[in-house]
Amino acid sequence: VLTEYFWDRSELSVIQGPIGSGTSTASCHKIWAIASEQAPDNDGVRRTRWLVVRNNYRELRKTTIKTWRMWFPEQVWGEMQLSEPMTHHLKMRHPSGDGTLVDCEVIFIAIPDAETAEQVAASFEITGFFVNEGQFQMKEVVDELLSRCGRYPSMMNGPGATWYGGFIDLNAPTEGHWIPYMRGDMPLPADWSEEQK
């Protein structure tokens, strides 16, 4: 299941698993994999920009960033900016040896609600996003993030984003959470408006 999720290039992919099942690790590696797949700009640089999202900075620091730094250590990938929003700018020659450079900017940001998502999303032009622990996130936040994907890199200097979208990992959500409805695990509530659907 992790392998299928890792290679899924749908606009939005979601994986659910128990604690310790490796979904966060797979998501971190998926960011770098897609960054490496991005077509280069005219100057030979494969540019992407990502938002990695949790509800608050405490959870980002306590869990998400620890996982990220385990797989992308600073002594190999360069120093991480730890002021908020935390940023890790990865730059490395493409593994194919074709002479291109992978330039992957990863911004770790807290988004607790839809209003914050609208404000934050307006500040960034992004390729994609990863919502960690999606069982705590609102659908409106994901909708807002999706609406901002594909705006980086610019088409002025190359093909633009050759893939864009987002992915979410989560543990089992509480009853009534939006993800099981969207997956088709259960019918939509009869009292939902067309906008909610």
Quick tags:
alpha/beta, 6-stranded mixed β-sheet, 197 residues, 7 helices
Verbal overview:
The chain is an alpha/beta fold. The protein is 33% helix and 22% strand. It contains 7 helices and 6 strands, in the order H-E-H-E-H-H-E-E-H-E-H-E-H. The chain has helices at 2-7, 23-37, 57-71, 74-77, 114-123, 139-147, 178-183, and strands at residues 12-16, 45-54, 86-93, 101-110, 128-131, 165-170. The protein has a 6-stranded mixed beta sheet with strand order 1-6-5-2-4-3, with helices on both faces. A hairpin with a 7-residue loop joins strand 3 and strand 4. The chain is globular, with a radius of gyration of 17 Å. The two termini are 27 Å apart. 30% of the residues are buried. The model has no long low-confidence stretch (mean pLDDT 91).
